[in-house]
Amino acid sequence: MAPILLLVVLLMSCSFNHHQLQLVLANNPFDQDFSYMKSVHNINGEEEIGSSNYNNNYYDYIIIGGGTAGCPLAATLSENYSVLVLERGNAPQSHPTVFTLAGFFSDLQKQDDGTTPFQSFTSKDGVGNRRGRVLGGSSMINGGFYSRADDEFFAKSGVEWEMDLVEKAYEWVEESVVSTHPRLDVWQSSMREALLEAGVGPDNGFSLNHKVGTKTSGSLFDQFGTRHGAVQLLNRANLENLRVVVQATVDRIIFDSTTTKPYSSSKPSAIGVKYSDSKGKSHKAFLRRKGEIILSAGAIGSPQLLLLSGIGPQSQHPNVGKFMADNPMNIINILLPNSSMEPSITKVVGINDNYFIEPVIFQPQLNMTSGSLAEKIPGPLSIGSLWLANSTDVKVTPNVRFNYFDNPIDLSRCVMGMRKIGEMLETKAMNQFKHNGELLFSGPSLPNNNSNNWEWESFCRTTVGTFYHYHGGCVVGKVVDGDFNVMGIKSVRVVDGSTFNISPGTNPQATLMMLGRYIGLKMLGERSRE
Length: 530
Hints:
Helix content: 10-25%
CATH topology of the largest domain: FAD/NAD(P)-binding domain
Number of helices: 11
Radius of gyration: 23 Å
Enzyme class: lyase
Number of strands: 23
CATH superfamily of the largest domain: FAD/NAD(P)-binding domain
CATH architecture of the largest domain: 3-Layer(bba) Sandwich
Shape: globular
GO molecular function, one term: flavin adenine dinucleotide binding
Strand content: 15-25%
Structural class: alpha/beta
Oligomer: single chain
CATH class of the largest domain: Alpha Beta
InterPro entries: FAD/NAD-bd_sf, GMC_Oxidoreductase-Related, GMC_OxRdtase, GMC_OxRdtase_N, GMC_OxRtase_C
Family: Belongs to the GMC oxidoreductase family.
EC number: 4.1.2.10
Largest sheet: 8 strands, mixed
């Protein structure tokens, strides 16, 4: 049996015995360390967890969501404490395409059939979007671009950061999963030159830091096109203390009934979670003394779970699900004359205070190859909200509206960025992509009248898409405090992008992984001082 197929067959079984686990580790067609699989379980209707005997079902920490922030958080806390991670998706080995660059392009073309490593949803704005549904989260399905947060993110976050610890947390992530020697293909190299010719300077060379100008940054894809996502950070865990259950969908948080009665003077106190496996069988897991439940289910999942657990507008938490935002993406696609060009992912970015410009992905097709230039605005300032579509079923994606360009500053920034892309199209670096002296476009081209603001604003509104960098819903200072504790609730934290009030830098995943490590270290420090 082919190695990839063998992995899929084994990962779809209900659980792993020692022999099966050895096969998974031995039949590894990727440059990956699958040691973390020793802690991964798929119970599928078994009584292994959540039986009537709770003696072995208590944990110091229960993390809801094994994603971009949840994996480094779990790895860190497991150094000294028992950790249960509940991930609604499957192990990444059941989706072999997530490990390769070719597979990434393939997954972009797929429709969500309920088994894909992503879940599709459409906001009330009419813009299609995706959520990670695999161990490792969105770091296993995105374009891999890795760049640290900007100074404004830290200044406006509402958190008193220990910047030395932030630096150490970033470095911990980077030494495990980030490729820092990117090779620039023709498209990325040419767009780098176009950015500089168009005045997006200075030339900052290679840097993982957020710097105004043009730079090359890191990637989760290595030089061989193999992805190294957040799931690999689980290899840094104490695997004896870590238990990861996949295809485990948390339905709600369980609270101590004595703290939720109307006459109680105590804060509501979380004691466990109720969740379902892929067969629909219900299970429970509980906290040990001084334990905590940590929501790392993302900007859609975390506010949804708080609402389903009774924490929201009807309680003392009116801001759960509020202050949702998504950085709009506006893009132009250029038909390329050379169909033999290799696939390209973002490795270069142009950074301005008002916009970011990225030469984004494309894959050569038989009949047509196109390269794309996309603009992202920082922030954004426009905000929306999330609310439940079903008051009892966590599997029903909540409603969300982002209100793209509701704030006129966002719209003016989009116009500035798209005009800069227009300047890039006039540079010498673009000459090689012309057909008989002209650039040809797949889809809308930029407005012809450069002086007509209305045309440019209309272009921004009608071509709006997403970078999948949505955030908010459990924002610091609104729902959680500066230590990411849910205010007014005992033993519940939120550690993911739902706590952000602006998107960090050009891409949030670096900071999400850093956040998991950072908060884990802070929590270990808190426990050591008790």
